[in-house]
Amino acid sequence: QQRVFSGVQPTGNLHLGNYLGAIKRFAELQDSFDCLYCVVDMHAITPDMRVWGGPAELSRNIREVTAAYLAAGIDPQKNIIFNQSQVSGHAELAWVFNCVARLGWLNRMTQFKEKAGKDRENASVGLYAYPNLMAADILLYHATHVPVGEDQKQHIELTRDIAQKFNNDFAESIASNGFGESYFPLTEPLIGGPAARVMSLRDGSKKMSKSDPSDLSRINLTDDADAVASKIRKAKTDPEPLPTELDGLKGRPEAENLVGIYAALSGASKEEVLESYGGGQFSTFKGALVELAVERLGPIGNEMKRLVADPGHIDAVLRDGAARARAIAEVTMAQVKDIVGFVR
Ligand code: ATP
Ligand code: MG
């Protein structure tokens, strides 16, 4: 059975990178897989509260991510849309994985190093254990595929390591409980396309991020046409015209980023974008990109605003999704408890 699981954190400022790297692809996968799309609210509280903003903002952001899923065309009947905190199996399985994963594995995680910054002693234990919870999110549903942006590749590799170690450590018990040779699948990441890593509009060496203090660094899904236009016009570029071939983008991260965004929004390849705009001035290309971005993102932002104005509908979608997710999760947790030897 092929199953997709993925999630987005309700940490505010949903942006073009979240859309192109994740949410747009979630919608595309719904016809070929059995999909669960989660609002990972337990991950959202791992940074300092000054960063995630406190209870009222968290609730608002949970509804906003849900609205983005719906506005992007994810069907809540065909798929399961829910928030993580409402299915207790995530926390339960994460604890088992805390005892399977090794400190040395987590010490290699670059996201922790980036997010903890210099003041590592003051980072939360949750921020450190984040990848174990993410492995639990995925494996609770025996997901075989996880669509994510490039930045999450290392965490999916860790998920495979955890699945493998669990399968090895408990091999005898897995067999004697009737699950054969292995219990958890080795999940494949689905990373790709021209926008697997959308970069900041101000700095081509940093990924576009919700947590970047500069609003000019990202295009938010709820930005209006004027904001989108001014952010793209102000986006950092170099003085050279666009190259006509892909090779010419080497060493020009800002130019490559804008070409990648155009390609992903239009459904073309970067080569095709350069065939149309290569050799021309950046200002011409930026004008075309503004038009395309406003055309594609405008309806999504408007639909998100319409949906969050009616929290009753969003909350009902989440409640229904949680009940359906729970039905799957409870079976997994009963099996995991038998395998580990917890008496039920
Ligand atoms: P935060 O700064 O709070 O971590 P984020 O922008 O990284 O926010 P997440 O909620 O952590 O967003 O990630 C949700 C999904 O969006 C993940 O699949 C992630 O890989 C993807 N994603 C995030 N940023 C980008 C980006 N710049 N380009 C492509 N995909 C991205
Ligand atoms: Mg992130």
From TrEMBL:
Q: Give the UniProt record's GO annotations in the biological process aspect.
A: tryptophanyl-tRNA aminoacylation
GO CC terms, sorted: cytosol
**Enzyme Commission no:** 6.1.1.2
Top-level EC class as recorded in UniProt: ligase
Q: Where is it located?
A: Cytoplasm
Binding positions (L-tryptophan): 137
Which molecular function term from Gene Ontology is one that the record holds? ATP binding
**Which Pfam family is one of this chain's hits?**
tRNA-synt_1b
Q: Which domain of life is it from?
A: Bacteria
Q: What does this protein do?
A: Catalyzes the attachment of tryptophan to tRNA(Trp).
Q: What name appears for this protein in its UniProt entry?
A: Tryptophan--tRNA ligase
In the record, what lineage is assigned to the organism producing the protein? Bacteria, Pseudomonadati, Pseudomonadota, Alphaproteobacteria, Hyphomicrobiales
Record gene name:
trpS
